[in-house]
Amino acid sequence: MNKTRILLVEDDAEISRLTAMYLDVEGYQVEVIDDGALALDAIKKTKPELIILDLMLPGMSGIEICKLAREFYQQPILILTACDDDVSEVSLLKMGADDYLAKPLRPHVLVARIEALLRRSQANIENKSNLCATEATLTISEASNKVTFQGKLLSLTGSEYEMLKLLHKNAGKVISREQCCQALRGIDYDFSNRSIDMRISALRKKLGDDQMPYQVITTIRNQGYKLIHE
Fold first, then answer.
1. Quick one: which of 78, 85, 97, 102 has its CA closest to 30?
2. Is the distance from CB of 176 to CB of 197 less than 8 angstroms?
3. How far apart are CA 225 and CA 147, in angstroms?
4. Which domains occur in the chain, in start order?
5. Fewer CB within 10 Å, N or C, the chain?
6. What strand order describes the sheet that includes 146-149?
7. Residue pLDDT, tens place only, 134-163
């Protein structure tokens, strides 16, 4: 079982030693950085699932690290503050922190806060995943010839409908232009390679997928097309 990775950015050697030791006993994998100037590179390199960040650091302050990290890091950041730090709860949250603790640390409280942040983070990830899955749903009703995508009913021509139905039935597989032509036979007399490309282009526009890189219908060079949203 993989341990949850935590990056501890703390320049007080004794605090970092004791904190890392306690978290290790609790089942976390902890890496310690004692210089603020090294923090951003360490975040990118180790990809921690949570950061514990002291405010007062050499090289770069915790405030600056938190602000810059938020440009690329979306996981929880827990700030450590000294009782006399002139930083309010509101300002900490505004700069991107998820929670904070005042020193001296109480180990059991620290672990409780970490667990709460990780639960919240996991719930957010699951919600985003569910949202993406819902938004990506393409439904084709052959009984009514109705097509919905992202919850919206699409208005398609007969040839566009047949082509999308073919791609949908073979989602994840490459469909050649010849197969597309066969699907259109009897629907439209014009089923040249050029007409196939034009209909794919029209479908992409109606699916909101007309900007590269394509997210729903992709072109496989010298082979054909593939529905990739499934």
1. 78
2. no
3. 19
4. 4-133 (3.40.50.2300), 136-227 (1.10.10.10)
5. N
6. 138-141, 146-149, 152-154
7. 445 778 887 777 888 877 888 888 888 888
